[in-house]
Design a protein that fits this description.
alpha/beta, five-stranded parallel β-sheet, 14 helices, about 60% helix, disordered C terminus, binds adenosine-5'-diphosphate, binds magnesium ion
Length: about 280
């Protein structure tokens, strides 16, 4: 009778505390502990474990939706052999997520197709799995969102969206030059996150030296770079586009296709004595 009362109270308690997974697992776990004659503490341990795991998983999937990643390629699926200019050990160290704690920015530079976004996403997924909030946005989307936000008087709200997550991924900076309001906004994001010790992963096809061309003023470029680079790792990726390489290895050479399309290459005609 007493046992039955306690049982009912435990069920009610778990429900009141919104521990629905532990509640679901209660009967089964009680049975396992009884049959296997496990010490009573084992019951509490197992119930807390399933509840905490379920909460973690729920948080990860909510954060994953919020993150706005364009695809979900994990670091494990990154082919390091295909891109030997990348220091795999360095990526391994970043994957431990120490950089999140010490606010180290990760700057991925290189030409198109070499895996900058893929690595940024791989690291972002690691952070998500560990339960962190992250936010991914390509630079041109940020510009669009900012213009809209200014019209609707929501600039501050957009700024806090960029500041709140533990990790921000700013993809593809440098393809389009920024106007002054956009550059100011970028400066605020970088400066605020720097003050809070919250890192940014940036990908760009531009070297640091050319940031003056992206931003309306050299001083502003210097002010942004100063904060970005203070605690940072720069990963310069050289080499061939991953997709072009796959085409080449499949026996398709996009360059030769281009040439064939061009047809009568006049230089060749001129230099060919047999014509
Ligand atoms: N080393 C790699 N291993 C596996 N997939 C890769 C690799 N490099 C690039 N990719 C894939 O090739 C495509 C282009 O890579 P991406 O990261 O978008 O290039 P970037 O951002 O440097 O322009 C993506 O689909 C990406 O997943
Ligand atoms: Mg990219």
């Amino acid at each position: 009778m007493q046992a039955q009362l306690s049982y009912e109270r435990v069920r009610q308690g778990l429900e009141d505390l919104q521990m629905s997974t532990a509640l679901e697992a209660l009967d089964n776990t009680l049975e396992v502990v009884r049959v296997e004659e496990l010490p009573p503490i084992e019951l509490v341990d197992r119930l807390l474990d399933v509840e905490l795991k379920a909460r973690h998983d729920r948080r990860v999937s909510t954060n994953l939706k919020f993150a706005g990643l364009p695809y979900h390629q994990k670091l494990d699926d990154f082919d390091f052999d295909a891109q030997p200019s990348i220091d795999q050990n360095l990526i391994g160290r970043l994957a431990t997520l120490r950089f999140l704690e010490d606010g180290t920015n990760v700057l991925l530079l290189g030409p198109p197709g070499v895996g900058k976004t893929a690595l940024a996403i791989g690291l972002a997924l690691k952070a998500l799995e560990a339960g962190h909030r992250i936010y991914y946005i390509p630079c041109h989307d940020l510009v669009g969102r900012l213009r809209k936000a200014i019209k609707l008087d929501r600039r501050e709200r957009l700024l806090s969206t960029m500041i709140r997550p533990k990790l921000l991924v700013l993809d593809e900076i440098g393809y389009t030059p920024l106007e002054r309001p956009e550059a100011n906004f970028l400066f605020e994001i970088v400066a605020k996150r720097y003050d809070l010790g919250k890192p940014i992963i940036i990908t760009s096809n531009k070297s640091w030296g050319s940031w003056g061309d992206i931003l309306p003023e050299q001083v502003m470029a210097a002010a942004i770079l100063d904060r970005l680079l203070h605690r940072s790792v720069t990963i310069n990726i050289q080499g061939e586009s991953f997709r072009l390489r796959q085409h080449r290895e499949a026996g398709i050479n996009p360059m030769s296709l281009e040439k064939q399309k061009g047809g009568n290459d006049t230089r060749e005609n001129v230099s060919n004595p047999n014509r």
